[in-house]
Amino acid sequence: MKGVSGCGGGWVVMEELQESLSDKGLTVSSVPEKGRCLFTTRDFSPGEVIICEEAYVSVPNKSSAKCERCFTSTNLKKCSACHVVYYCGNTCQKSDWKLHRVECKALSKVGKERIKSITPSIRLMVKLYLRSKLQDEKVIPITVMDNYNLVESLVSHMTDIDEKQLVLYAQMANLVNLILQWPEINVKEIAENFSKFSCNAHTICDTELKPLGTGLYPVVSIINHSCLPNSVLIFEGRMAVVRAVQHIPKGTEVSISYIEMAGSTATRQKALKEQYLFSCTCIRCIKLGQHDDIQESAVLEGYRCKDKRCSGFLLRDPGNKGFTCQLCGLFRDKQEIKNIVNEIQSLSEKASFSLSYGYKKDASVMYKMIEKLQLKLYHQLSIYLMRTWENLLKILMELQDWKEALKYCRLTIPVYQRVYPECHPLLGLQYYTCGKLEWWLGETEEAYRSLARAAEILRITHGTNTTFMKELFVKLEEARAEFSYKISSKGEDY
Ligand SMILES: C[S@@+](CC[C@H](N)C(=O)[O-])C[C@H]1O[C@@H](n2cnc3c(N)ncnc32)[C@H](O)[C@@H]1O
């Protein structure tokens, strides 16, 4: 397909992209074990924006209705023609019109029953083809950072995926074909593009990292993964913004994390292999199987010693009858563990069921029972306990039980500090929640400290200009002023 400058080919596109990136202090190079990589050609300081990119195409997820353009959930009106897409007002509808006009026509022809089976991925693919056609026809302008050739350059891993996945992609491609009804369409190419989505598309999140949708960002997609990344990807609306989280010297590869980092090396490796089809060899992953790494994964995902006073970690005994504490030597029977795990499992199902029916109080009681059982089984720094505390925090916030919510928020912090890098947005956001709860509960000094920690991290990951960050700075200033006032009126030396 079509070269950006009219003389065809990805080479011209790449040259132009390199030129545009060089103005930003960046360059693309290829290395055999990773493919394309983004490198810096100058130093970047913590918090500095490395690259911003608008989505080539994006779709909101299906969790609730959202504006097609800005992903807001308020003041929505459904498109009266296709009955699929929502807009929050004229501005969003107008700016999306060129693309939606053609998508709307295509969707309007699809039967009511089939419309229900159209997933966000299918819509993303339909939009991808429509956008590239509109750019071909010069209805939508082509720019260096906004063209289909960049999509063509994305890695697809078509030769690495299994038969079952290929069949699924082929079925999805047929559905796209059915919607578009283009006689010249290449179904094999659509299937390959689904494979590209799988290892290149990004989940678009709000400022608090709640997922809103999916987008394709072909330039940001050049950035490779590290489990100890030097950069972070955040979204400002639909705009992808990559910021340095540490000082990045000239000549360094820019890296972000593709996955949830809370997990042992083996868990992270599994996630990367399954979705992105590579084995990570980053500075954390090369430690796989070493003593420290075994201990770390036993603490994060393994069982605790049966003796409550012992802080040892357990390893499977050679006879596979149970686990032995590596500190005091105490044996823990496999069946005893299995019984507790089964109890937790059944309670988790009941808690999710209660939540799905809006019985939050019941759900909180069940999660507290789960917590009790998990404390018998896992370490204080266990990922499983962390997830239970997160669930309890969320439910208790919704129930406006601030005191209990704060208790669980505080419990998560040491686990977050262990599983996330020092400057990770989730750690910053958790400090922010803690600070807000402490403030509401009148714990001024603690609130000031938590909000200060939150601001320290989030000013780097989120920048300083958004409404979200301005609100945080206002709260921090309020807490600081009240804290200083308390000190001066008490005359205490803090
Ligand atoms: C979003 S793309 C990144 C850019 C890619 N290198 C390219 O050439 O287009 C994701 C793919 O890059 C490769 N990749 C990313 N991070 C990697 C890493 N740390 N080690 C090896 N391969 C990596 C994997 O093939 C993965 O599926």
From TrEMBL:
Ranges for domain SET: 24-259
GO cellular component: nucleus
Protein's UniProt keywords contain Signal: no
Residues of the MYND-type domain: 67-104
Gene3D superfamilies: 1.10.220.160, 6.10.140.2220, SET domain, Tetratricopeptide repeat domain
Protein name (database record): Histone-lysine N-methyltransferase ASHR1
Transmembrane segments: none
Superkingdom of source: Eukaryota
Short name of one Pfam family: SET
Keyword field contains Ribonucleoprotein: no
Keyword entries, A-Z: Metal-binding, Zinc, Zinc-finger
PANTHER family: EG:BACR7C10.4 PROTEIN, HISTONE-LYSINE N-METHYLTRANSFERASE SMYD
SMART domains tied to this protein: SET (SM00317)
Molecular function GO terms recorded: zinc ion binding
